[in-house]
Each structure stands twice: as C-alpha cells, then as structure tokens.
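Onboarding guide, step 5: your first structure request.
Type a short instruction followed by the sequence, for example:

Predict the 3D structure of this protein.
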Amino acid sequence: MAACRPWLVAEIERVDPRVLVVLGATAAKALLGPSFRVTRHRGEWLDDAVDGAGPGTRVIATVHPSSVLRATDRDAAYGAFVADLRTVADAL
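The system replies with structure tokens like these:
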C-alpha cells in the first residue's frame, strides 16, 4: 500500500472526482488511516479526508462487495450495501 500510494494520490489529483467511494476495510485504512473502522463509519460522509482529493471532494466508505457473499444474513448485508450506494447516488 505504501509503495503504490503516490500513484493513487496522483490519480486522484488528476481525475479530481466529486465523490470517492472506498470499498472495504483495507482500502479504507489505506486512504483514511489505520484507526478507521468501516463497521463504525460506513455510509457516513467524510469530506476532505483523502490526500490528493480537491476541496469539496466527498468521501464515503462501505463494505467490500465480496463481504456480502460471506455474510450470514446476505439479504441484510446486501440491503445495507445498497443503502450506502443510494447515499452516494442521492449526492450526485
């Protein structure tokens, strides 16, 4: 992650996205810091939280889609994941 971070930051700077959707704990910790917990903060807007992101770039984290397949209650996990993505869609 550390070796690739400069390329990711450069890509974010070049693309200048309005929204970044971070999928899964590994990506979230890499971009938002090691103390970030997807289970606590999924679906919450974290504005201006990522290096390289321009002012006003909105950031939101959710679970990785593969976690839905591993969930005990797949229907609930899928519903929560879709709700997070609806939050993003509503912001666009």
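Each response can be followed by summary notes, for example: Residues 71 and 86 are 20 Å apart (CA to CA).
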